[in-house]
Amino acid sequence: MPRLLVAEDDPLVARYLLRCLDSGGYEAEAAEDGVRAIAMLARGGWDCVLTDYAMPRANGLEVIAAARQLDPTLPCVVVTAMNDMELAMSAMAEGAVGFIPKPFKPDHLLIVVRNALERRRLAVESTRMRLLGPLLEKFALILANTLEAKDLSTHLHCERLVEYADEVGACLSLPPDERETLRLGACLHDIGKIGVPDVLLQSSQGLDEEEWVVLRRHAEIGAEILHDIDGWTEVRRIVRHHHERFDGAGYPDRLRGMMIPLGARIVSVIDAYDVMTSGRPYSPPRPAEVAVDELVRQRGVQFDPDVVDAFLEVLERNPGGVRLLGRDALRVRGLMR
User: Fold this and answer.
1) Of 123, 232, 259, 312, whose CA is between 20 and 30 Å from 70?
2) Whole-model pTM?
3) From the CB of residue 204, how many other CB atoms can be counted at a distance below 10 Å?
């Protein structure tokens, strides 16, 4: 149950706030002035602060400043009879995430508190992922390399996809957290193949329909493997949907167009390119220009056109990249300018 600190010098208002918060399912304690509130903040364990502005010994802005110094993710909401825009701006500058003028309705209060707590949850999750991100990427790479040991033809496939994915993400101006998720998804896109018999992964012959059904399940298996990892919802979506097609003819859910997660659309393009250029037991490697021309041919059919264009731009920017582009690809790049 979330714990809230209420800083309010008026006993009647404090009791009213506590009753409102209790009805909303929150545990709350009150402090009768600003100094007492700051002392209670130092004990820790708070999820949100509601503070009046005009209080003895320390005002609401000082309470907010102390809260933010102790925990930068702790959301603070100003509840005051002073309906002053300048005060609201000052409170926001100190780090407040909400401003409630008195008198207020309980429903309004609870909505603001709920939004503040959600903001805290996202801030804590972002901080956790920022700290754990490098470790998680290393773990994911180790896991992916373990899988690749089952099939020598895929050696270094995941490392290349992680690099391609990051460059395409940058080309599409994705923010750092989305690029991190994209790298993890690219790294673990085929983790579900751990549940596919080696004989199918290493077969140099074409698979029959029954064998294809087994192989195609790797996308669902991979998403299930990652199911219980907190904060990896988008990574799981990349793993599950990286074999969907832009025209809706892919698997496992036959998603179409923009219904396919962007990360999965990116991995679909770069995975296809790397598979074509590196080869598999059932198919020898193709020249880079042939692989790129195939991407262009499937632009808008199998692949998202914008993602194909971004990948071509990445290839063109790389040293010698222009030489990788076939005639059809160069024609498309010309149309893009």
Assistant:
1) 232
2) 0.58
3) 9
